Give the backbone structure.
Amino acid sequence: MSDDALQLPFAPLNLRRNPFGQVPIDERPQLAVVDVEEWVEAVQGGTVVEFVGRSGRGKSTHLRVLAAHLPEAAYVHVHKDRPPPAMPDRPVLCVDEAQFLPPRRRRALYRRDAPLALGTHASLADEIEAADRVVKTVSLDDRPVDASLLRQIVDRRLEWARRNEGNLPQLSDEAVTWLLERYGDNLRAIEHHLYAVFQHLDSVRTVGPDDLERAETPPAAITNPVDPPVRESMGTVLRRRICSVLRRLGTTLLITP
């Protein structure tokens, strides 16, 4: 089946595709509503910038936009269930899901004489500083997602998927409020829910809370993701267990007559 045939169902919406579907990798930076100027300067100055946050909070988006602003930067994604990728020989590295790298690989990464930015579920600042690198932690869990920001994200996606001149579907203010009250700062869950809404929208009109209520909700893995811990070396794990045992023994000795 041709791409045109697959996209025709969205023609009544004046759209080429579902605006909240998968975005090609090379188009993601232009759709992102983030400001990375201050972090560009920090990375170029030798500071390791780490974007820390739970799943769906924009770590990958920030890293991709940052990479797009840095000449000759490489974006590398580390997957939990795959062998760690080789790091390219590039002047700047933006490494996503860095917590999945084995500890020795992370230490080698910090020792590279190259500008570096990371995305991680948990801060790696202690081990970065132990490698004598200056680190700037950007907590995306603390970034407010308000109605203005969500409206910008939605409008940019709609324009990206536009088919022709003319009107496009819009979200009512009540729908924006509904999404924020339901999902807070979980942008991945919001996009997933809007994808379901637009799959069944049949005309150019305003989308309201009733449309959101009728749509299929995202799975629990998206609404309440369980972020895995940082991979640790056996030495670190062993030291923690020894310390735990010693603390318990110390308590026992104190209370034993």
Q: What stands out?
A: The chain has one domain: 12-245. The first strand starts at residue 48 and ends at 52. Strands lie at 48-52, 73-77, 92-96, 116-120, 135-139, 170-171, 206-207. The two ends are 81 Å apart (CA to CA).
